[in-house]
Structure formats: structure tokens, C-alpha cells
Design a protein that fits this description.
Order of helices and strands of chain A: EHEHEHEHEHEHEEEEHEEHEHEHH
Structural class of chain A: alpha/beta
Distance between the termini of chain A: 42 Å
Shape of chain B: elongated
Strand order of the largest sheet of chain B: 10-19-18-17-13-16
Strand content of chain A: 15-25%
Number of helices of chain B: 12
Number of strands of chain A: 14
Radius of gyration of chain A: 19 Å
Largest sheet of chain A: 7 strands, mixed
Largest sheet of chain B: 6 strands, mixed
Oligomer: heterodimer
Radius of gyration of chain B: 28 Å
Structural class of chain B: alpha+beta
Distance between the termini of chain B: 60 Å
Shape of chain A: globular
Helix content of chain A: 25-40%
Number of helices of chain A: 11
Strand order of the largest sheet of chain A: 3-2-4-5-7-6-12
Chain lengths: 327, 493
């Protein structure tokens, strides 16, 4: 057993893929000399040199665009955004160029590239730096949206994303970088994109989560298990394409569901999950599906307000109890 | 916690019920499952059972009064529990005009709790409730303007739909809490979850599916979910519980839960899609005589041997006493087993052929006719059929039959022989495809081996739905029936 952090699991994935394929390179602010703002790219510059690990100026639109161009001429760039909040400046390249290039070029230009970086809230970074963007990005045809929750998933999904022929948006949890988990050494880990995973087996209620909220879901499932309530925890792993089959299979078994996410309510990922549930499982529902998400406000700076706004175990537990008609 | 007692749908078609008798007085202790009242439905007098423990605190309608299904008719609660709001609010909201119903919560200040008495029309005193008119039907959904006004464009009224509430700031939760209180009060005011929207039964999609699969009548189930919503566990409980008061002595079938007895189980029948020729036959014949294009087949049966058998059985003692009709029922069941093409229903877009034989037995009651069913009659012996027929007929006349006892026949028999009728035609009870009318037994002079002889004879006339049963098909069935009746020993084979 080899316990590593989420950060190091990503580092392993990058190292292995840059090593494996000489078309792969990493580019972004501080990824080289500084070893990455969150130390995800630690040691890569030393190992692979400045042609493969490229420091850029603070110009998201520019280096994202260079990445698109590089993919067009046959390279496989990995673009690191220091956070996805900064990536808003580069969204024209992500949404208008990368996502649509294959379609608009009549299939002439595949986009084998990854845009990656931390997503969602950390601690007291206030409104502009605490946003979960998966529902925005998942809305765009042409993009794949990946949200790993554990170190194992982070490594396996990033390696698959780098090998994918499509532009992949890879959303890491800033609060997850220090979390630890088993990542077997010397084993090629490749997790297929578009497949969910059952993280806990249960029969009374399904919790459908992705990214950071998977850990909350597991925590809640473990706590409720002591009361004899067993929860089926489905980790979407990939938000787009979404594994509708896995969701339906779980809900058909439990008849009840709660969807939890970091984003806001309106048009959130959870809304899409609920839509799939009502379409696929209408006759299997014994209660309305509930959602747990961020409060419908910009993220507050004050610690207590920030806590009140974020989804957490307490809120998720309350929703599960409500769905089970225990309250 | 107070339990609202509502007028329940005690039969499939019941829309209102007349309270014949209260079996508990105000102040009496009540246990879940105990009989609270007797209610006359369309077809029978049924028992209304308590769904919770406590004290019968308030009876809201008088004996002899009629109440629509879903109306609050009594309250069971703890001895010291305050039930004023529950009792006072009930009929008031039922009377409130729909507009007030929707607009009221919007008009209320967001963080003010709305007292139930302020809902809709002024509250009436409990004494007035006896004469309360039936609850209104579905309350129209809120107009868009109201939704905008209360700032809840994305939050449905149903409290259990308050999406993502768990993650709301506390003040927002409080505001919604106040609104929910108003919603709940309105629900309670209308009598129960069921009455809240007229006679619509609130149930989860899963519960509806399970109820349909297991043959549970949703209207007879008390929901345990929010606002009285019927959920999976309620259906499972209902399906698992034997029907109360059903255990007639000797009638083993009666103790079997309804769910098991229903004939809708897969494998009990085959649905045959209509062929084009069958569709055209159906349409043309229905144009000719309708809506059920009936034709009649009459046969005069020699029942000499049946009579001999009967007499021989009677000589063996009272416990072997069977009637002519019992023997006819047994013979019909046996014949139906051999002629599944007659043991069928016409369902409009298909014909349903049953693998089990459930014979309906027309019984005249004082003010009409009812057809209790002998289930799986082909598998029962004469003794069982005789005992069950007697028991069902008695309970039919006493108007004590439960819906599941008079629904589900695959074919029926009507006998007017005891009234001195020697021949008649019976009306088919759709969707059944046939009915056998049985006349009285009488001695007639007939030719036997070329010489006149006096024999006991009986006429039977089968009414056939021509869309399902063709002439030759019906005739073959009667042929089998004749062989069975004229050689009754075949019935014991």
C-alpha cells in the first residue's frame, strides 16, 4: 500500500505522461521555477527541462490560446490555471476555440489537451476566488469535465484526460491537495472518463456527488450507517459525459436521492442529475429528490458566513433525513 | 400527535360515504385498528378503522350524514392535546375560494407566521362543521404573479420540495419555515393530505407503481409521508396485512390478502392482440347491437342425475347438502377450465384470456344486484363452493361484502330458478364476455329412447359477447356444460 497526497498523485500522473509521450508538455504560471502554485508540478522542470515545463506570464488568455494552437499542430498541451477563477479570462479559448475546433474544422483538428487547476472554494478567499465552475463548463458541447475526489482518482483520471483526443477540463479541489489515499506504486492507473463509481454501498438513499463533495458524502454515509441508515454514494467522477446509467441503477435500488455539489442551485450540475433521475427512474421514486449546494449568494469572506453558505455534512445529513421522511 | 380521521374510499368507485353509525363516543379511548364507525358505500356497509392511538376527541359529522371521500370527519388525539385549530380550520379552508387559497401566503409578511385561522374564509366554530359543504376540488396552481410576489419562483409549494434548503442561510430558512407553516396549516385546514387537493390521493410514483403491481387500492391506504403522501412502506404494509374481518368460517380464500387474490398477477392470463378480422368483427357487431353485441344460446339440460346425486348426498347427512346452483357453479367452473376461450374479458384494444377461473354469482339484494366472486372455483370442491356461495350470498344481502369480494370475476352465473323462472336471458357484466342464466328445475315429458318419459329438466341460456365468443365457441362450451351436468360424476373426477 502506498499512501500519497492528492497533490502528489497528480504529480505522478503528469510525470508519467510527460515521460511516456514526448508530445505532452505542461504550461502555466509558476509551473516551472516555482514548482507550481500548489506544488503539483514539483520537480518536473528539473526532470524534463523548459521545453516540456513552460513558465508563462500572467496572461491566461494568451497561454490558453498558445495551448490550443499547439494542440492544432499535433502536440498534447496541459494548461495549468492557478485557479479556475483566473481561467475566466481565458474562457474564450476554452469555450470558443478548444471546445469547438474539432466541429468547426470538420474533424480536421482534434484537441488533445487538458485545462487543469483548482476549482471551488478554499478557506476565506471571498467571492471572486471561491467558485465552482463545473456546471458552466459542462454546459459546453465539445468539452469533457472531470472532477476527481481522491488521490487514486486524481491520478487515474488525469492520465486518461491527457490521453484523450478531446479538450478536457480537469477540476481539482483546492482543499483536496493535502488529502491522502492509496495510490498503488508501479501500476498503470487509467480510469475511463464518463464512468461513475460507487464509493459506498447502501440501500436506503442515494447520494450523488462529485469532486470535493464526495468526501462529505462518504462522511455522512459512514455516520448514518451507525444509525442503521445505509447510503449508496455515487461519485460521478466525470460530470460530462455523465454516467446516467450508474445514477439510475442506484436510485432504482434506493428509491430516494440527494444530490450534493459545491456550485449554486440554479442550473447546477445537481439540476441535471435530478433531470436524469426523473426521466430514468420516475416510477422508482418514493420521495422528491433534494439538492444540497452553495447558498444562492456570492461566497462571503467572513468565516462564519462562509461556513453557512457552503454545503457540508450537517446540511447533507439533514437533506437525507428529509428525503427518508425522518424529519 | 393528533390523527385526522377522514372519509376513506372504501370501494373502488366510492366518491362519498354515509356515516351509518359511530361505534365510539367522544372521549372514548381508541387504538389503531379499532373500528370507529360504519360507513355505507355505493354497495355495502363497511367499517372505518382508526389509524392511530389516542382518544376520539371530536366527531365532526353526525350519524346519517354524508361526506365526500377525504373529508375530515373526526379527530383522534391525546386527551390533553389542543385540537381547536385542527377542528376549527378544517371546513373553513375547504370553503375558501381558490384565489384566496393561493394568494394568502404571498400577502403575508415573509417572516410572520400565518395563523391557520387567517387562512381563507373566517374560521367556523366546530359546531358548524356538521353542515360543511364538501371540499372543493383541485385548487388551481398559483398564478405567476403570485409566485413572483412571494419571491419563490424556484421553490414549489410542497414543503418536501424545498430544494437545497439545507444549505440556506438561517434567515432564509426561517422565512421558508414561516411559509411552510402557512402551507401546512392550509393542508391541515383542508382536512388531510388527501382532501388538500380535492379527492386526489397523494402518493409517490413508486407507491403508485407498487400499488398497481400488487393490487392495492390506493384510496384505502393511509399515507405516512409528508401531507399524507402514500409511500412505498405504506403499500408494503397494506399488501402484507390480511384484510380485516374477512375470515369467514371455512372460507380459506377470504383470509388471503387482497394483493394475492387479485387476478391481475402476471401469468394469470394472456393478452391476445386483436387481429384485423377480430377488430372488424368487433366494430361491425357493435354497430349492429351495442355496446355489447350479445347473442344468446339456450340449452335444455337433463338434470335427473343431478337430482339423484343431490338426494343421495342429502341422505348422507346435512354436511353434504348442496343446491342445484352449487352444482351448476362447479360445472361452469370446470367447463370454463376446459374452454379458456370463454373465460375471457373484452378490454377494447385486446382480449384477455385468464388462466384462473373466478366465477361471479349474481345475488339479488333488496335494492339491486351484486355479483360476489368465487375465486379459483375450478380448483375447489363442491363442499367449498357450496359453503362459500352460501356465505357470500348472506353477506351480500347484509351488505357486508368488501370490494375485493365482488370484483375480479372472469365469468358469471345468474340463477332465477328459485323464483319459478324457467328461462331467461342475463345481461353480460362487462368486461366479462359471457354470463349463464339458469332457470328452474321442473319435470317435463320428453322422449327417451323413443318413448315418452318424465324427466327433471333445466334451461340454461348463455349470453355471449360476440366480440370475444363466436357462436360455435359458445355452443361448444354449452356442450361441455351439458355433459358435465348430465353426468355429474364427471365433476368429481
Amino acid at each position: 500500500m502506498s499512501i500519497v497526497t492528492y497533490r502528489d498523485a497528480l504529480n505522478q500522473a503528469l510525470r508519467e505522461e510527460i515521460q511516456r509521450d514526448d508530445r505532452v508538455f505542461l504550461m502555466g504560471e509558476e509551473v516551472g521555477e516555482y514548482n507550481g502554485a500548489y506544488k503539483v508540478s514539483r520537480g518536473l522542470l528539473d526532470q524534463f527541462g523548459p521545453m516540456r515545463v513552460v513558465d508563462t506570464p500572467i496572461a491566461e488568455l494568451g497561454f490558453a490560446g498558445i495551448g490550443v494552437g499547439a494542440a492544432m499542430v499535433g502536440l498534447r498541451p496541459i494548461i495549468e490555471f492557478m485557479t479556475w477563477n483566473f481561467a475566466l479570462l481565458a474562457l474564450d479559448q476554452v469555450v470558443n476555440s478548444a471546445a469547438k475546433m474539432l466541429y468547426m474544422s470538420n474533424g480536421q483538428f482534434p484537441m488533445p489537451m487538458v485545462f487543469r487547476g483548482p476549482n471551488g472554494a478554499a478557506l476565506q478567499l471571498s467571492a471572486q476566488h471561491s467558485q465552482a465552475w463545473e456546471s458552466w463548463l459542462a454546459h459546453i458541447p465539445g468539452l469533457k469535465v472531470v472532477t476527481p475526489a481522491t488521490p487514486y482518482d486524481a491520478k487515474g483520471l488525469l492520465k486518461s484526460a491527457i490521453r484523450d483526443e478531446n479538450p478536457v477540463v480537469f477540476l481539482e479541489g483546492e482543499m483536496l491537495y493535502n488529502t491522502k489515499g492509496d495510490v498503488p506504486e508501479g501500476e498503470e492507473i487509467l480510469i475511463p472518463l464518463g464512468k461513475a463509481e460507487r464509493k459506498r454501498e447502501g440501500e436506503h438513499c442515494s447520494i450523488i456527488a462529485h469532486g470535493k463533495t464526495v468526501l462529505i458524502a462518504i462522511q455522512v454515509a459512514d455516520a448514518l450507517a451507525k444509525e442503521g441508515i445505509s447510503i449508496d454514494v455515487i461519485d460521478l467522477r466525470t460530470v460530462r459525459p455523465m454516467d446516467v446509467e450508474a445514477i439510475a441503477e442506484s436510485v432504482k435500488k434506493t428509491n430516494r436521492a440527494v444530490v450534493v455539489e459545491e456550485g449554486w442551485e440554479l442550473c447546477g450540475v445537481g439540476a441535471q442529475v435530478v433531470d436524469y433521475i426523473q426521466r430514468e427512474c420516475f416510477d422508482f421514486l418514493d420521495a422528491p429528490v433534494l439538492r444540497v449546494h452553495q447558498a444562492d449568494v456570492p461566497m462571503p469572506y467572513a468565516k462564519n458566513l462562509e461556513r453557512a453558505a457552503k454545503p457540508d455534512a450537517q446540511k447533507l445529513t439533514a437533506a437525507v433525513r428529509k428525503v427518508l421522511y425522518l424529519e | 400527535m393528533a390523527t385526522k380521521v377522514v372519509m376513506e374510499a372504501l370501494s373502488p368507485t366510492m366518491e362519498e360515504g354515509r356515516l351509518v353509525k359511530w361505534t365510539k363516543n367522544e372521549g372514548d379511548a381508541v387504538k389503531s385498528g379499532e373500528i370507529l364507525a360504519e360507513v355505507e358505500t355505493d354497495k355495502a356497509v363497511m367499517e372505518l378503522v382508526a389509524r392511530g392511538d389516542g382518544v376520539l376527541r371530536k366527531r365532526l359529522i353526525n350519524e346519517g350524514d354524508t361526506a365526500p371521500v377525504g373529508q375530515l370527519i373526526a379527530i383522534v388525539a391525546a386527551a390533553d392535546e389542543n385540537i381547536d385549530e385542527l377542528a376549527a380550520g378544517a371546513p373553513a379552508a375547504a370553503e375558501a375560494p381558490p384565489k384566496a387559497e393561493g394568494a394568502q401566503p404571498a400577502a403575508a409578511a415573509p417572516d410572520e407566521k400565518v395563523a391557520p385561522a387567517e387562512e381563507g374564509a373566517p374560521a367556523r366554530s366546530p359546531a358548524d362543521t356538521d353542515k360543511a359543504p364538501p371540499a372543493e376540488g383541485d385548487v388551481p396552481s398559483k398564478p405567476p404573479a403570485d409566485r413572483v410576489a412571494d419571491g419563490r419562483t424556484s421553490v414549489p409549494e410542497d414543503p418536501s420540495h424545498s430544494q437545497g434548503e439545507a444549505s440556506m442561510p438561517p434567515q432564509e430558512r426561517d422565512r421558508r419555515g414561516a411559509q411552510r407553516f402557512a402551507t401546512d396549516a392550509r393542508g391541515a385546514a383542508a382536512g388531510s393530505g388527501r382532501a388538500e387537493s380535492g379527492d386526489r390521493v397523494r402518493s409517490s410514483p413508486l407507491a403508485r407503481k407498487l400499488a398497481s403491481d400488487r393490487g392495492v387500492e390506493l384510496g384505502s391506504v393511509q399515507g405516512s409521508g409528508p401531507g399524507g403522501r402514500i409511500v412505498k412502506r405504506d403499500i408494503e404494509q397494506a399488501a402484507a396485512q390480511p384484510q380485516r374481518g374477512a375470515a369467514a368460517p371455512g372460507a380459506q380464500r377470504a383470509a388471503v390478502p387482497v394483493a394475492e387474490r387479485k387476478i391481475s398477477t402476471e401469468g394469470d392470463y394472456q393478452d391476445i392482440p386483436l387481429t384485423q378480422i377480430r377488430k372488424i368483427i368487433a366494430r361491425r357487431l357493435a354497430e349492429s347491437i351495442g355496446p355489447v353485441p350479445t347473442f344468446y344460446l339456450t340449452s335444455e339440460l337433463d338434470v335427473e342425475r343431478v337430482a339423484e346425486m343431490r338426494e343421495a348426498m342429502i341422505e348422507l347427512g346435512d354436511q353434504y347438502k348442496v343446491s342445484f346452483n352449487d352444482i351448476v357453479l362447479k360445472a361452469v367452473a370446470t367447463a370454463l377450465q376446459q374452454h379458456p376461450e370463454v373465460n375471457a374479458h373484452w378490454l377494447g384494444d385486446k382480449m384477455r384470456y385468464f388462466n384462473r377461473v373466478h366465477v361471479g354469482m349474481a345475488v339479488a339484494v333488496d335494492d339491486g344486484l351484486i355479483t360476489p366472486v368465487i375465486f379459483d372455483a375450478d380448483t375447489k370442491g363442491l363442499a367449498d363452493i357450496s359453503r362459500e356461495a352460501r356465505e357470500l350470498a348472506k353477506r351480500a344481502r347484509d351488505r357486508k361484502l368488501k370490494p375485493e369480494e365482488y370484483t375480479g370475476a372472469t365469468f358469471s352465473v345468474s340463477n332465477l330458478g328459485m323464483f319459478g323462472i324457467d328461462h331467461f336471458t342475463a345481461i353480460i357484466n362487462p368486461p366479462e364476455a359471457g354470463i349463464l342464466a339458469v332457470g328452474g328445475v321442473e319435470e317435463r315429458v320428453v322422449a327417451v329412447d323413443g318413448a315418452p318419459a318424465i324427466r327433471k329438466r333445466m334451461n340454461v341460456t348463455m349470453s355471449c359477447d360476440h366480440r370475444v365468443i363466436d357462436g360455435a365457441t359458445g355452443a361448444k362450451f354449452l356442450q361441455t356444460l351439458r355433459r358435465l351436468i348430465e353426468n355429474p360424476l364427471m365433476l368429481v373426477y
